[in-house]
Design goal:
Blueprint lengths: L2 H4 L9 H13 L3 H25 L21 H33 L4 H43 L1
Length: 158
Amino acid sequence: MSYLADMAIFPRPVSPKRAWVDLRDYLAEGRRHKLLLLALALAMTWVIIWGFLLDSKTNTAPGKQIIYIENWTGDRTDADIIAQQKIDLLKREAAIKRKQQDFRKVADQFGIDWRKEAAIGDRREKEAVAALMKRLDKMEAEAKAKAAEKAGKSGAAH
């Protein structure tokens, strides 16, 4: 076992020139089976590299995104817009609740204790939605008053 200490990790003549000379000497021997094995090894290497190149190009681009918009008439009042915002807020809130229920079911399946944090989050969310609805109600009332005032002025002018 004393000979292991004298052995180098890499052979001494390591260089690209020496590698080329070794390859040339290997191919110059003229043994057919060595050439076939070399060709097979190169082919397998290139098949693997080609596979990685193909795989790197699949499913990398995002898919098409379709965005639907609603077409509104130009004569909508601010009150109509705010009323629609309130409806949209309630729809969004319901969608969020459905999604939360799905996540809570998954959390139950994995044994995650979520109820304490959910109670705090639900309370904060309810307060935020109530404050937003209160603000929308105020804005809607102001918009209706402004529209009534505008209608009164235009009716008096004619």
